[in-house]
Design brief:
The complex is a heterodimer of chains A (about 160) and B (about 325).
Chain A lengths: L1 E8 L3 H8 L12 E6 L10 E8 L2 E13 L3 E6 L4 E11 L3 E11 L4 H43 L6
Antiparallel strand pairs in A: 1-7, 2-3, 3-4, 4-5, 5-6, 6-7
Chain B lengths: L1 H7 L25 H16 L10 H18 L3 E3 L10 E5 L8 H14 L5 E5 L1 H5 L5 H4 L2 E3 L2 H9 L3 E4 L3 H5 L16 H9 L3 E7 L6 E4 L2 H6 L2 H5 L6 E4 L3 E4 L12 E4 L5 H5 L5 H22 L7
Parallel strand pairs in B: 1-10, 2-5, 2-6, 3-4, 3-5
Antiparallel strand pairs in B: 6-10, 7-8, 8-9
Helix pairs in contact in B: 3-4
Classes of the chains: A alpha+beta (about 160), B alpha/beta (about 325).
């Protein structure tokens, strides 16, 4: 099953990237995530591994994932090592007016599970889709609020351009 | 030939040699009656059906491929909700001690196994002890691939010594067939062997409290007297012959399978208990038992108070 969603964020691409690439901030915008922790010696970047779980139906699904593409500030992709088979990608692109278009893609499934696997993917899809939708909105809120705070801080400091 | 070999085995299925199948308490008659012979024949059939204990039968790939099916059952049919899995230590052997509900269809075990396997991954060894009868029921051989082994001290020790997580239901057949109106009661029937096991193996205990399974059928009675009358304890290690109202049989005697009603099953996993750290270097088994009973009953009371209607939850 492949699901994707996107959103426009009123912030420069670097501001969005700084949050997506920071593993410490994932829980603040990822909807439905029940567990997220760094697994291994590399906290961020290519080869970083994370243990993650989402609540879908009666179970928390996920497993160990590894970052397989880390092209700052455009592409952040991961694939599963254990647990549910999954590939995911953050795709960031500059948009007019200093905005950023953020796309979140996820492909998941269980190889070899047959019809029940297909059925489970279909039944889980609305829930996964809703989590992705909420994640993008929470990310947008987080990034835009940070932009507002930064602008307010610059204004208070009387910095030029505030 | 294979059967003949199996019957001569000094140890079957992790058990010490079973109660003498040839002596079913009908008296040392030199010329057994027809009824005696029938009992012996039936006992032999049942004993031969019980699979040999082999932890290696657990198959992570099989579990992984079956998880979607059981996730569907767990999510849609039972609307399963398992809380507190983070209380289970991330690695190392651990004894998960649950209250048991739902008759021989073990819906609570299924919901918990799905949740455990997705949470920790199928790579983490996880075994469940089950009654001989469950393992010998036709069509349930796949349970062994999920890590289900016959309930015996030897199997339990082997599983924990291998570093696995082990789920046990001390109440066993006694608790799982209690009347449905006792759904909110933890009843291990005074069985404390699991505490000695945890102490001997020096593993923590994690209580696992479940509700909802007893609403998957209308369980009427354990039928203990009936079981005693039929000498089922010596025959198949059964102290009960439950009678319930369930689908598709309507009146179900013995519970050799039924279609469970779609009752909501909620399971709460409590923090791990290091027995020697909490009860001292030479802990009193009765004290631990009372503590666990109190803890699990309080949790079950809380879960019961969340339910508004039977089955619906």
């Amino acid at each position: 099953m492949r699901i994707k969603d996107d959103i426009a964020v009123a912030a420069p691409i670097e501001a969005v990237w700084s949050i997506i690439a920071d593993p410490e901030r994932v829980l603040s915008y990822m909807s439905g995530m029940t567990r997220w922790e760094i697994a291994g010696d590399i906290p961020t970047g290519l080869g970083a591994r994370y243990r993650m779980l989402f609540r879908i139906g009666a179970a928390e699904v996920g497993g160990l994932i590894e970052v397989v593409e880390f092209a700052e500030p455009y592409e952040f992709a991961w694939t599963s090592i254990t647990g549910l088979d999954q590939r995911g990608r953050w795709r960031l692109r500059e948009a007019p007016g200093g905005r950023t278009r953020v796309e979140l893609r996820l492909a998941y499934g269980v190889a070899g599970a047959g019809i029940s696997g297909w059925l489970a993917e279909q039944i889980a899809a609305p829930s996964v889709s809703r989590h992705m939708h909420d994640t993008l909105r929470q990310l947008r809120r987080l990034v835009e609020q940070e932009q507002l705070r930064e602008r307010a801080a610059r204004r208070r400091a009387g910095a030029p351009g505030a | 030939m294979a059967q003949a070999k199996a019957s001569k085995s000094p140890r079957r299925n992790g058990h010490e040699p079973p109660a003498d199948v040839d002596n079913l308490g009908v008296g040392p008659s030199p010329s057994p009656s027809l009824l005696d012979k029938a009992w012996r024949g039936l006992a032999g059939v049942v004993q031969r059906r019980i699979p040999r204990a082999d932890l290696d039968e657990r198959d992570p790939d099989y579990i992984r491929e079956q998880l979607p099916l059981f996730w569907l059952l767990s999510s849609i049919w039972f609307r399963g909700e398992v809380r507190g899995l983070g209380n289970i230590p991330d690695d190392g052997p651990v004894l998960l001690v649950g209250n048991h509900s739902g008759g021989n269809m073990i819906p609570d075990t299924m919901v918990f196994t799905v949740a455990f396997s997705t949470y920790f991954g199928v790579e983490r060894a996880f075994y469940q002890l089950a009654h001989n009868l469950v393992l010998s029921l036709p069509g349930l051989s796949w349970l062994r691939k999920f890590g289900t082994v016959a309930a015996s001290p030897n199997n339990a020790r082997k599983a924990l010594a291998s570093g696995a997580a082990l789920l046990v239901y001390p109440g066993g057949d006694y608790e799982v067939h209690r009347p449905s109106w006792q759904s909110d009661r933890v009843d291990f029937g005074g069985r404390k062997g699991f505490i000695r096991l945890a102490l001997d193996q020096e593993v923590p205990i994690v209580p696992v409290v479940a509700i909802g399974g007893q609403e998957t059928a209308l369980f009427l009675t354990r039928g203990e007297r009936l079981a005693q009358l039929l000498a089922l304890d010596r025959l198949v290690r059964l102290k009960v012959l439950p009678i319930s109202l369930s689908l598709p049989w309507i009146v179900n005697v013995g519970d050799f399978g039924h279609i469970p009603l779609p009752a909501k099953i909620t399971i709460e996993t409590l923090p791990a208990i290091d027995l020697r750290a909490e009860f001292g270097p030479d802990p009193d088994v009765d004290e631990i038992y009372d503590h666990l009973m109190r803890l699990m009953q309080e949790t079950l009371d809380a879960l019961a108070s969340e339910r508004r209607f039977p089955v619906i939850g």
